[in-house]
Amino acid sequence: MADTDTNPSAPENSFVIPGDTIDIHPHVKKVKLGPGARAEVNEDDTVFVAKWGVLCSKQNEQDGPAEFYVISDQKRPEISVGDTVIGVVVGKPAEHFAVDIGLSRPAILPILSFEGATKRNRPNFNIGDTVYARVSFTSKFLEAELTCMNAQGKSGGLGKLSGGYLLHCSLAACRRFLSPSAPVLQALGEQIKFEIAVGVNGSIWIDSDNTVQHTYTHKNF
Questions:
Q1: Is there a contact between 72 and 18 (Cβ–Cβ < 8 Å)?
Q2: H-helix or E-strand spanning residue 39
Q3: What is the pTM of this model?
Q4: What is 92-125 written as a DSSP string?
Q5: What residues have CB less than 8 Å from 221, skipping those under 6 apart?
Q6: Residues 6+ apart with CB under 8 A from 191
Q7: Within its chain, how far is the Cα of 131 from the centroid?
Q8: Which of 212, 168, 166 is nearest to 191 (CA)?
Q9: What is the pLDDT of residues 31-88, one digit of tens each?
Q10: CB–CB of 179/11 below 8 Å?
């Protein structure tokens, strides 16, 4: 069996295969299972690996849940509730926006899933607009549902992304960029000022103050 002893404050990088168990440190109070990890309800609440790849973990906040997930060389996004994604608006039905996030069917973004939105005060989106959202519902049989509000009902940086560049990279790279200690982002931030939004679905939006910095940042990604 692979060595899967993990530290929730930093990614592990242990190669795992389906059936391996994930040892969670006793001090971890809250656990979130991302792609490639599943729980079995028993006396020990055992967490198993569901696919081959590299086992990683992260904890964005000191009191937040420790997330465990497996990075593998897959092409289709695998999303969980709470994940951030970047998508393109492809439809505008009456009560929601249809957003392409790389799944087999567009995700649903309800018009009331924005801070301050009402049926009279609808968010203004056009076909082709880029949106940064959080996954609020997933199902094998239904469309995924998104929201542009955090747990406190605020936008928290979610919403329409204007300007900048929309890039696409591997799902594994995006997961690593979302780590609080991502070395690439730290090194780039020491050179130039830029804004970035990363989706677990393989999309990255990046913007900077001027054309020179914009081009430099784009080339580095």
A1: no
A2: strand 37-39
A3: 0.70
A4: --SSEEEEE-SSSSPEEEETTSSTT--SSS----
A5: 167, 169, 204, 206
A6: 216
A7: 13
A8: 212
A9: 777 776 766 555 566 777 777 677 777 766 666 677 777 777 667 788 888 899 999 9
A10: yes
